[in-house]
Design a protein that fits this description.
334 residues; Rossmann fold; Dihydrodipicolinate Reductase, domain 2; six-stranded parallel β-sheet; 12 helices
């Protein structure tokens, strides 16, 4: 098997290294808008670098991993599925909901295989939380709290094309809310602040956000996020039911200190970023993609599954802009 990978930046390099470690993945063909970057990574991994992105397709591969800048995702996914290639694509499929819907309709029309990169579905803590909720161990779930906090703001260049805090960052929390609880979001109310660095205001973005989600069974969810958490990378999910409550992401590297005299000590080595925190999950999602390509496993997160989280993020952005609750039925769907 030969897998092509387009985009050898930070996440693309991580994915390429994960694939290179898998015996079942076969050989790797790498391409990037900066050919020299692809060559350097290929030399390090024992892979092959293509001089151009076009040659990924003309040289021939059995599957494609799309990890380039967001604006390139949609065209590459459509081209690949039209050519019969299974595709793994980092989220999002496209920068906006309308374009996302158009791509997913194209995938469906040709019977294409598309796996989206929601790596938290492969994290041990979230997997255990899902099992506890689905087994009834917590009783009737009444409250869910999620947080995603980045240790430092991204660059101004990144912010201009990121899609905003809800679509780029909190979309992972929204996916976990659905995946863990087994319920859909029916309504959102969201707000945000741009009181941090000026680059957020200049990009029309926010650095901190809060969203209240109501699930279809009445469970209430509060989701918070920020780009300015100097203590470290903090991702947690708390689930409270009538019988018990649990938390994911709470360990000796969680960047939060207790003010209680007998509280746990602060983390001596807090998580510095998402690649370190979710390294095993990233590895596992690429293993799942290889199994999918080989016909040995199911698709763990297809376009329809991913769309549900994208729609929640879109609803949050609409709610923030218009300062009102937004029912999910207001947004277009497949």
């Amino acid at each position: 098997m030969r897998i092509g990978l387009i985009g050898t930046g930070r996440i693309g390099s991580f994915h390429a290294a994960a694939l290179a470690r898998q015996a079942d993945a076969g050989s790797l063909l790498l391409a990037d808008a900066d050919p020299a970057r692809a060559v350097r990574l290929a030399d390090r991994l024992g892979a092959t670098a293509a001089p151009t992105v076009e040659q990924i397709f003309t040289w021939g591969v059995d599957a494609l991993v799309v990890s380039c800048a967001t604006e390139g995702h949609a065209d590459l996914v459509v081209r690949a599925v039209r050519g019969g290639l299974p595709v793994f694509c980092e989220k999002p499929v496209a920068p906006d909901l309308d374009r996302t819907l158009a791509v997913l309709r194209e995938v469906a029309a040709v019977g294409g295989v598309l796996q989206l990169g929601f790596m938290r579905r492969f994290d041990a803590g979230y997997t255990t939380a899902r099992e506890l909720v689905r087994s009834g161990a917590l009783g009737r779930l009444h409250t869910v709290r999620t947080t995603t906090a980045d240790p430092s703001p991204p660059t101004a260049e990144y912010l201009r094309t990121s899609g905003g805090l809800y679509r780029d960052c909190l979309v992972h929390d929204f996916d976990m809310v659905r995946w863990v609880t087994g319920h859909e979001v029916s309504e959102v109310y969201a707000t945000g602040s741009d009181a941090g660095p000026a680059r957020f205001r200049e990009a029309g973005d926010i650095d901190t956000a809060t969203a209240v989600l109501t699930l279809d069974d009445g469970t209430l969810v509060s989701s918070t996020g920020t780009r300015c958490n100097g203590a470290g990378y903090d991702v947690r999910m708390e689930l409270a039911g009538e019988l018990d409550q649990v938390s994911t992401g709470l360990d000796d590297r969680t960047p939060i200190a207790s003010t209680e005299p007998q509280g746990p000590p602060p983390a001596t080595k807090p998580w510095p970023g998402f690649l370190e925190r979710f390294a095993p999950a990233y590895e596992a999602e690429l293993e799942a993609f290889v199994r999918l390509v080989r016909g040995e496993g199911p698709n763990p997160c297809d376009g329809v599954e991913a769309l549900a989280a994208f729609r929640v993020a879109e609803a949050c952005e609409l709610s923030r802009r218009e300062r009102r609750p937004v029912a999910m039925e207001e947004l277009p769907d497949l």
